[in-house]
Specification:
By secondary structure, the protein is α+β, with helices and mostly antiparallel strands. Helix content is 26%, strand content 46%. Among the domains are: 3-74, Alpha-Beta Plaits, CATH 3.30.70; 99-167; 251-313, no CATH class. It is built from eight helices and 22 strands.
Length: 391
């Protein structure tokens, strides 16, 4: 309830009190003296008081209720409007992309990626896209440039986007029937060796570098190479990765389950009553096709297609399992499914207004098998060279 606390100043203050009684103005006396009185009145009584012609000075000391806030806004209107406009402008600026950087030495491929990003809605001075849309754009570019790209990630850094890329390396195919070595496709610590043919030249827990021979296709007898074979097998190693995610604090999505049905419904006011189905979906998206409508009452008959949806609500700030799941999905896009998580832990977690930056460390066991051809390797020349070196 709106109230005013007033200070009334003037001579013969008792006369003013009699005036209030005469005009049926209710008041509560707070304090009084010879020359003034402090009273509390309702808003409607204050409006009556303003209409009375009097020589007494009426001063508002305090407002209570909603009128306090409306008065507060009124006298500080310019300041509040400036703050609101400043906040809106700042929000606008922080949602604009000011730069898109592709971290890649290949200038030609960098231009291709920038063109693709622009095609899918990411370029300078455009609005930032949502996390879900960013994931879709990553998949679209990888699908479009699958001959050129192994992996791509768009990372939001302040008002900029940084795009990290791994080029697809087109190795010459080494046929299974050709003489070949099995070599490491990347750095790592050996965890398992499954050899079918060839000579194993490394062992478990050894650290190897990319290109090191793991299973040799050269068969030796007393230090002499006697033949070349096609090395067969698989070598697994522990490899370390860091996955960086920029996530909203909360994520909401309606995901279609694939279930749908067509039903006949009576629509009355805001209620839909299914006539041809006993089981109703808890959550669904519907498309109505009205086949009959009564103009005098809010009632109609419709043929409706309903698609069941699953409501996904995730609080990434508290739900670490969902964060790990997203990070692992991102890693699988890069490595494939032939991998096993040995260890995962959060390295960094920073909250920024409505988003969160998080870095996750992974120890992964993965297949690091690659091949190098021995087709042009000359056994006789290599044996002579070894003999000379031993003399």
């Amino acid at each position: 309830m709106n109230r005013y606390i007033l200070k009334i100043t003037g001579k013969r203050i008792d006369t003013f009190i009699m005036l209030l009684v005469r005009f049926n103005i209710c008041f509560r006396k707070i304090k009084s003296s010879k020359d003034y009185i402090i009273i509390e009145v309702l808003e409607e009584d204050y409006e009556k008081l303003k209409k009375i012609k009097t020589t007494y000075e009426i001063e508002i000391l305090k407002r209570k209720g909603l009128i306090y806030f409306t008065h507060f806004i009124k006298i500080r209107k310019l300041f509040i409007v400036s703050i609101l406009l400043g906040f809106i402008f700042l929000t606008f600026l922080t949602n604009i992309i000011f730069d898109v950087k592709v971290v890649l030495d290949d200038e030609e491929l960098r231009e291709i990626i920038l063109t693709d990003l622009k095609e899918f809605g990411i370029s300078k001075y455009k609005f930032k896209v949502s996390y879900k849309e960013k994931e879709k754009i990553e998949s679209k570019i990888l699908d479009k440039e699958k001959e050129l790209l192994e992996w791509l990630e768009i990372e939001e850094k302040g008002v900029n986007y940084e795009v990290n890329v791994i080029k697809r390396v087109k190795n010459k195919e080494v046929k299974e029937t050709e003489p070949r070595n099995i070599v490491a496709s990347k750095n790592g610590m050996i965890t398992r060796i499954v050899a079918e043919t060839g000579e194993v030249v490394t062992k478990k827990n050894n650290y190897v570098n990319k290109g090191d021979i793991l299973i040799s296709g050269l068969i030796k007898n007393n230090d002499n190479i006697v033949s070349k074979v096609s090395a067969k097998g698989k070598v697994y190693a522990e490899v370390w990765y860091k996955v960086s995610l920029n996530l909203p604090l909360t994520y909401n999505e309606e995901k279609r389950t694939g279930n749908n049905k067509n039903v006949l419904e009576i629509n009355f006011l805001n209620n839909d009553i299914e006539l041809t189905s006993l089981d109703s979906y808890k959550n669904y998206k519907s498309k109505k096709n009205i086949i009959w409508k009564y103009n005098l009452l809010p009632i109609s008959l419709s043929f409706t297609k309903k698609n069941e949806v699953e409501l996904i609500n995730i609080n990434f700030e508290d739900d670490l399992d969902s964060v790990y799941s997203l990070a692992l999905d991102k890693l699988k896009k890069r490595l494939g499914s032939d991998m096993k998580v040995i260890e995962q832990k959060v390295l960094k977690k920073e909250k920024n207004t409505d988003k969160m930056d998080i870095d996750i460390f992974y120890k992964i066991e993965e297949d690091i098998t690659s091949y190098s051809s021995l087709k042009d390797f000359n056994i006789e020349e290599e044996n002579k060279k070894n003999e000379l070196e031993s003399e």
